[in-house]
Amino acid sequence: xxxxxxxxxxxxxxxxxxxxxxxxxxxxxxxxxxxxxxxxxxxxxxxx
Length: 48
Hints:
The protein is an all-alpha fold. It has one domain. It is built from 1 helix and no strands. It has one helix spanning 5-40. The longest helix is centred in the middle third of the chain and has 36 residues, at 5-40. It is rod-shaped, with a radius of gyration of 20 Å. 0% of the residues are buried. Keywords: Membrane, Transmembrane, Transmembrane helix. The chain crosses the membrane at residues 6-28.
């Protein structure tokens, strides 16, 4: 049984979209956290 190109796109597109959204989320949150740390003078070493 032959699987067409559109079938492969339909199969993998949701996974690719999810992975791209995950990467965007982590980059976005990392930048947000860095801005908050700079604003409030926090460090990431947990030595308090």
